[in-house]
Amino acid sequence: MGIIDSPLDSSARMTNNRAMSVSQKPRAILIDVIPSTMEPLQAKRRLMELESLTRTYGGIVVVKLLQKRALPNYRTYIGKGKLEEIIQIAKEERVELLIVNNLLKASQMYAVGEFLRPHYMRVWDRIDLILNIFAKNAKTAEAQLQIKLAAIHHMGPRIYGMGQEMMRQAGGTGTRGGQGETNTELMKRHFIEQERRVKRELERIAKSRANHRRRRDRLGLKTVSIVGYTNAGKSSLLRALTRKKVLVADSLFATLDTRVGKLWLPNTQTSVLLSDTIGFIQDLPPQLINAFRSTLDETIAADLLLHVIDANDPFMEEKIREVEEVLDVLQVSDTPKIYVFNKTDLATRIPKKNLLKAYADFHPVFTSAQTGEGLEMLTVHIEKKLYPDL
Description:
The structure is a single chain. The protein has three domains: about 140 residues, Rossmann fold (3-Layer(aba) Sandwich); about 80 residues; about 170 residues, P-loop containing nucleotide triphosphate hydrolases (Rossmann fold, 3-Layer(aba) Sandwich), CATH 3.40.50.300. The strands form two sheets. The chain has a six-stranded mixed β-sheet, with helices on both faces. A four-stranded parallel β-sheet has the order 2-1-3-4, sandwiched between helices. Helix content is about 50%, strand content about 15%.
């Protein structure tokens, strides 16, 4: 899949104005608009994650900016003075892309795009960036369909809102306004029909996956799903436990598809299926969770969850809470869980006693998928959870 069109792309075509495409390695300015009451450490974390997302996409981060506002600007989200500052930096540093670490309304995206257009810049919000990362990493037909559905949900309301904004600027009447309305309605119908087609195809894939699960149930195969924050080492753990060849990369959202391998349990002399799927992030948009619902069905139907946590992460506790919030949305909070504190080989000091006490209900295990530390103990815990009577 190629780069997903941003609202600025579509508006450029609709108004026949020039617009420069984002290069493969765009030079980007990142900005986060936050309330003045936000803790400095939390603000730092938000920008750090946005930077990681931008680098995962392939962008070059030139400048990171924070703007503290009680409320975002109604028209442009970012204050006018800050936008002018961004333009000046862009001129000096040859920047072509502005990435806003928030979800912008259609009218705000259009207004910022119009402000930046004379300077050959484009604007993405947080979801635009995530969708473009997904588009680059999707390998299977299912993942590509899920991304397409998410893009439709994200772009459809924007196209409609953008058309309304164009009509207002044109005075609501006359050829330009009328044509804008026609184009908007045509685009709206196009998105609706696309959504129907994508959903039908995803339903077909979901039925096939459900048939596979029913067959596994008939064979008595237990299932274990690996969940966790993106880049916590989930794929590495799957490979280490099952020796299945899967992509392991030090980047966000390296895995979008479900990967399944078999794990042998020596005491019960049985195999269980171990699956790994998309990782979670802070403020994961609901439409992205919904779009990946068919992939996440493996997690929903699992007998046991392995919540993988980067033991070396300074924001460990926040990320644990955020993963649990997504699991709650998926309605699997009550599924038995084991907390797997991974990447112990990279950590200089891990407060094991504190973590064992704080998360005792989830039987914490400390592992390194790279060195094999703790994997045998993890297998024992999995076996005890799945077969408590043995």
